[in-house]
Amino acid sequence: MTDQTPAAAAGAHMRAELLSQPETWARAADMRDEQKILPSAGQRIAVVGCGTSWFMAQSYAALRETSGQGITDAYAASEAFLDRGYDAIVALTRSGTTSEVLELTEQVKGKIPVIGVIGDPDSPLVELADAAVLLPFADETSVVQTRFATTALTLFRASLGLDADVARSIADAEAVLSADDDETLATAEQYTFLGRNWTIGLAHEAALKMRESSQSWTESYPSMDYRHGPIAIAAPGRITWQFGVAPEGLSGQVEATGGRFVQHDVDPLADLARLHRVALDRAVGKGLDPDQPRNLSRSVILDA
What we know:
Elements: H1 12-19, H2 21-29, H3 32-35, E1 45-49, H4 52-66, E2 72-76, E3 88-93, H5 99-108, E4 114-118, H6 124-128, E5 131-134, H7 147-159, H8 163-178, E6 190-195, H9 199-214, E7 218-222, E8 238-242, H10 250-256, E9 260-263, H11 268-285
Parallel strand pairs: 1-2, 1-3, 3-4, 4-5, 6-7, 6-8, 8-9
């Protein structure tokens, strides 16, 4: 007899995990003691990660800088410049086993304090870092990340005192994920994601999520830079999706190409949660399993 349990369905783990985001965000927002482990205002810091974690680092860096809490640089862990007088490094990683993050932490041991924000409490980074903030309740089974990344960013937002924004994001995500999506969002030929300031990282993450889960053609840019060439890709059957407030006139310019401009009046992180579900539905509709995407694994561990 064929197994018809939900666990057998393609993307079952991703679905359960993305739907749990309002709950995990609320837990992260309440972690006041753990938030105090993160760098204090005035410190000069670098935030590092790989893939999704790098994009969340970009969003955290923009939020910390614009809230006046100190110089904050975001790097892919393999490309970080560490000789800039940093007071601390924040290393974001779901697995705590990513080779580039571990190598960077070993490189600066005894020179620059490293604070790990980690999903797996049994990972080697927990002991290697100088301090650790653990988010095991947000860890995931699916290879494609959803809730760990957004929960970590919620932790960062709360640590910066952005409580009103966090509260709105949780309420908006609850509403978004309890409602039905426009099914046509999952059927475009091509997607371009745009953001400004801290939502640029969300745009890059949205593009990665669609590529990973559904093998789709996606691009991502700062909103203002989109008109400096990339808008040439806009056309009928293609979507340009803005996270947060769009530059004046951009929607009309996209629509003039025959392309579709998408923008939702919700907190941008809640809109990313919406995109997670769109990516899942697109993947399943194409007969793919985003819990086990092509050519990917949960953690990238390089051979020595």
